[in-house]
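Re: that chain you flagged

S.,

Sorry for the slow reply, it's been a week of failed gels. I finally had a moment to sit down with the sequence you sent. For the record, here it is as I used it:
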Amino acid sequence: MTLLSDQADDIRALVGSTDPGAVWAVGGPEGIQARSHPGGGGGAGATRVAGGAGGAVGAGCPESGADAVHDVGALGAVLALWPAIGNLVEEGALRLHTPLAAYGEEAAAGTPAGATAHHLLTRSDGADALTRLAEHLSGCPLAELATTRVWHPLGMTGTRFADGTLHAPLGDLVLFLRHLLRTAAPEGATPPTGPAPEGLPVPAAPAGPVSPAAPVGSPAAPVGPLGSAVPAVPVGSAGPVDGGGPALLLAQGPAAAAAAAAGPVVPTGITRAWTTESLRIRTGELIPARGLLWHPAPYGVWAHSAPAPGGPALWVSPRHRRWAVLLPTAGSARLRTAFRDAAFAPSPH
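Prediction finished late last night. Pasting the structure tokens below so you have them in one place:
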């Protein structure tokens, strides 16, 4: 859905009157449709809207002014940690419903007994524990894991940690959101019920610890409240995530066996399966409702916001094929909500 000129004007007026120095952009799978001035402001004349002779302003276009680097440390959980965890799940190194203790004492340090990655991904305070888990399983710092498996494969070459803080140009944030939108099925924006994309099951969203044998995307029965003891399952034990073993490889033919002998294929980027599993309600009827480090918002939107009110935020709507990003300078919680409404609410024009 292309942003209308009147909508872009409304966003420009809103940001210009509230936080002229804010950096923002709204777009779709093809690129930017409207954005702040390349100098980093939302005042008059600050918007370039798609639909003219030049079409959408792409993330890589020099005229988009997307090379200025911004402090996006408050969005590190979704830009670095969320896709890194997804890669480990896709690789088979991590099961979301397996107690963390199954991966060793270091992986479970500081978490309640029986806690799982699924619990941490649906909580607002799980980032530190998830970072330790990702680094423990991958054997490398999160910065290296995200750089090699996520950012560089997506073309986000300007995104990096410096002095412990994540920095990224607007162009890289656009690449991230465009890719996310392309991998998100429109049905994923309609939580919590309805048919899943073809080939993906519709799992029950447990409120507490679940059966450790359940892989991502499978139904799992709760076995107790958060913090209760859950039997540990050894890493690499037989199960749906681990594959079918040598017999299955032989049945699939010499090519499959040869590929297995060459070693596991390390996934990169952000997969459709991980996006679809993340952008749906994972907390049952609990309030607030949450996905995996994303939470639902009005208008069929999924959001990831900085913990501080008025901090930066990312939004994506598979239903409307639209994304948005806001990097404010004034820290206004009202601006964040109003910006989301202006970008995604049905246009009255």
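What I noticed first: Residues 314 and 325 are 5 Å apart (CA to CA).

Talk soon,
D.
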